[in-house]
């Protein structure tokens, strides 16, 4: 019952013609080799209609699509999917202009609601994510970071009428104020110039969206569109409505307030003078480096970053087409890698680039590809995370090694420079490390995903390892500890403690109570991992511990609890947030009469449903150690007990007990108690390390 009317070559449509299918669908346009190719019109029985370009039988190129409900899309297509720049109108009158990638909204664009609200910025998968600015019809605006439609991260919220007008500069977690921030009432003219300098510095560092770039992008309409499944109801409710009801009727002369929130709960407030704020903001404008310093053109590491990104893009692209196979012994040989020259003008094997000439070496590529696959890291995602359009961020080195740390913009990967000796250790132990990762899926050892070397034309060699970031979580990490089990020099010795300060053994003034079976599993895995490091003659490693505090019970609104709730593992795994670079089994609430031996998830009201695994999203009870103030840490975390979520892993695993360390041990043993120093033989180090960790996680007879 199908019909074709038009030109033919042989028995195939060629040129112009009209084809009608048995269901009533009709195509009128150009054909080539029997398929739709060129310009044409396609109409479905539902009334939906497409007019535009086709290629090889697919909707491909520029075209206009009108749905049966009269929603209209004008823009680019690829293989029947919206892909590229486009302009979409919805049945309710909303308008979006931006781009699509593989049928899903992705990137930068502008969305205008029928009620007049306007968002300009980045989206991901149809939801506001990334940096952007939302302006409500009443004039209120939020400029900053977003996640899944919620204000999340650093931002600036400006009120026009509510609270008498004013600005709050601070951080949010899924729509709730979380962390320190400053409220500036309207009319404090003395602060306008310094505050603007401060905000411009934030934009330059990439912590706030750059409105000038947004306006330029809007003219070019680069990369974004919002799916209708994304509900703006939560966002609209947040415009002009906040959790500070006590500030509704503030006076125009209200002072500047420094406030600290925990999941939307106000826990402290300090009145600041105009003079202090002006001086502080000028200093911050000069020194803002958190969370990491964005590497832009002119930065000292800009050429190094470009070379690194280009090299990783080349390495992953080179090995991806090779069929996956089991790792062989020869793959662990350092000579199994390759070296490639990257001249600035390009070569038959390499593209032209803006960095200086450099040579690139990729070590053991088959092994590291296998490790990435083991942790389900997609090659395209890996490249986009490290080598995408967004620049890397450089972190200040937390240790004494002098290493440079880079962080990918999505926080999934950390890149660290290594000494030559560390590269040798990693290559020496790589085969056993790979076997350990295969054998123990819950291992807490650092995850290594790539090992590379760059030799710029200037001559200085840089060796890099790509690692998983164990703090890649949407929860706020309030405290970070580097724990070795030694005491000599193991204190941060800093007057100001913030969320990015790496604290040490003597600064720890809390112990953590876990569900008993989870404690047993954790200590067992740490013992297995430390025994492995001992067998490889490794010492001086640390347990990196990240702590997310929940608001103390006495400060919470009883109507909206924000504590820790365990729930049985859901059937809908899509709604559960899984930690980054995670494999292995979920944890079970084995000692709970409520769940029996069932796998459980962590439900945080107002935040998310998190998958609990060893070292990731682990709920616990933190209790202050009597008589231990931990320096300035306890003065800031001033409650005796908290519900917490823990993230932990074993890091710095490339220091072997070599001649240098043996000399250091002999020298320090004369001056100090040999038990307190870090430089000890691997056997004693692992025993002391495990003993200390057992004190950090004492046994708990009560189920948390």
UniProtKB/TrEMBL annotation:
SMART domains: MORN, PIPKc. InterPro entries: MORN, PIno-4-P-5_kinase_pln, PInositol-4-P-4/5-kinase_C_sf, PInositol-4-P-4/5-kinase_core, PInositol-4-P-5-kinase_N, PInositol-4/5-P-5/4-kinase. The keyword Transferase applies. GO terms for molecular function: 1-phosphatidylinositol-4-phosphate 5-kinase activity; ATP binding. Signal peptide: none annotated. One of its GO terms (cellular component) is plasma membrane. Residues 1-21 are annotated as: Disordered. Keywords: ATP-binding, Kinase, Nucleotide-binding, Repeat, Transferase. Residues 298-697 form the PIPK domain. It comes from the Eukaryota. GO terms for biological process: phosphatidylinositol phosphate biosynthetic process. Its EC number is 2.7.1.68. It holds the Pfam family MORN. This is 1-phosphatidylinositol-4-phosphate 5-kinase. It comes from Erythranthe guttata. The lineage of its organism: Eukaryota, Viridiplantae, Streptophyta, Embryophyta, Tracheophyta.
């Amino acid at each position: 019952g199908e019909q074709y009317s038009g030109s033919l070559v042989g028995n195939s449509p060629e040129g112009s013609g009209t084809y009608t299918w048995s269901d009533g669908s009709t195509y009128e346009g150009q054909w080539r080799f029997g398929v739709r190719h060129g310009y044409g019109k396609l109409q479905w029985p539902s009334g939906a209609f497409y007019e535009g370009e086709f290629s090889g039988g697919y909707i491909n190129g520029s075209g206009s699509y009108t749905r049966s409900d009269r929603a209209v899309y004008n823009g680019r297509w690829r293989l029947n999917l919206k892909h590229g720049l486009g302009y979409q109108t919805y049945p309710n009158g909303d308008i979006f202009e931006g781009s699509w990638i593989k049928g899903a909204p992705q990137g930068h664009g502008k969305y205008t609601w029928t009620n007049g609200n306007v968002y300009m910025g980045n989206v991901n998968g149809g939801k506001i994510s990334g940096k952007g600015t939302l302006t409500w019809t009443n004039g209120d605006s939020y400029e900053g970071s977003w996640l899944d439609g919620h204000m999340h991260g650093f931002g600036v919220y400006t009120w026009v009428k509510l609270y008498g007008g004013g600005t709050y500069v601070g951080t949010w977690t899924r729509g709730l104020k979380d962390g320190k921030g400053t409220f500036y009432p309207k009319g404090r003219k003395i602060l306008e110039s310094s505050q603007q300098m401060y905000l411009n510095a934030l934009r330059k560092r990439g912590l706030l969206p750059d409105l000038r770039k947004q306006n330029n992008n809007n003219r070019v309409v680069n990369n974004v569109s919002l799916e209708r499944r994304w509900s703006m109801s939560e966002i609209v409710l947040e415009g002009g409505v906040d959790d500070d009801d006590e500030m509704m009727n503030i006076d125009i002369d209200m002072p500047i307030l420094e406030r600290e929130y925990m999941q939307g709960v106000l826990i402290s407030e300090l009145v600041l003078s105009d003079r202090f704020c002006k001086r502080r903001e000028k200093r911050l404008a000069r020194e803002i480096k958190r969370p990491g310093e964005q590497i832009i053109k002119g930065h000292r590491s800009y050429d190094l970053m470009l070379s690194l990104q280009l090299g990783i893009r080349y390495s992953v692209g080179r090995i991806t087409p090779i069929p996956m196979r089991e790792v062989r012994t020869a793959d662990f040989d350092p000579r199994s890698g390759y070296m490639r020259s990257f001249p600035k003008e390009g070569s038959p094997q390499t593209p032209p680039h803006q960095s200086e000439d450099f040579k690139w070496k990729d070590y053991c590529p088959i092994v590291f590809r296998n490790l990435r696959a083991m942790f389900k890291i997609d090659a395209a995602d890996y490249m986009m995370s490290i080598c995408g359009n967004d620049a890397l961020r450089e972190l200040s080195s937390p240790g004494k090694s002098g290493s440079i740390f880079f962080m990918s913009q999505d926080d999934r990967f950390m890149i660290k420079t290594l000494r030559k000796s560390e590269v040798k250790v990693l290559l020496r132990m790589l085969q056993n490390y790979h076997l350990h990762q295969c054998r123990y899926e819950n291992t807490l050892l650092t995850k290594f995903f790539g090992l590379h070397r760059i030799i710029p034309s200037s001559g200085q060699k840089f060796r890099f390892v790509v690692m998983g970031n164990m703090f890649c979580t949407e929860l706020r990490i309030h405290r970070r500890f580097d724990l070795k089990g030694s005491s000599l020099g193991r204190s941060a010795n800093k007057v100001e403690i913030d969320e990015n300060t790496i604290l040490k053994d003597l600064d720890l003034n809390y112990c953590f109570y876990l569900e008993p079976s989870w404690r047993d599993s954790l200590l067992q895995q740490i013992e297995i991992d430390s025994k492995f490091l001992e067998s490889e003659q490794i010492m001086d490693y640390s347990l990196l511990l990240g702590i997310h505090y929940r608001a103390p019970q006495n400060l919470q609104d009883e109507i909206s609890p924000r504590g820790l709730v365990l729930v049985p593992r859901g059937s809908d795994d899509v709604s559960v947030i899984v930690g980054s670079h995670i494999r292995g089994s979920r944890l079970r609430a084995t000692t709970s009469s409520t769940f029996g031996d069932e796998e459980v998830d962590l439900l945080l009201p107002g935040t998310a449903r998190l998958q609990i695994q060893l070292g990731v999203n682990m709920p616990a009870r933190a209790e202050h150690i009597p008589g231990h103030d931990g320096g300035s840490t306890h003065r800031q975390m001033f409650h005796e007990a908290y519900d917490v979520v823990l993230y932990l892993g074993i890091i710095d695993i490339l220091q072997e007990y070599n001649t240098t360390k043996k000399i250091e041990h002999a020298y320090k043993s004369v001056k100090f108690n040999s038990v307190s120093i870090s430089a000890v033989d691997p056997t004693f180090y692992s025993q002391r390390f495990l003993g200390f960790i057992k004190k950090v996680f004492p046994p708990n007879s009560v189920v948390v």
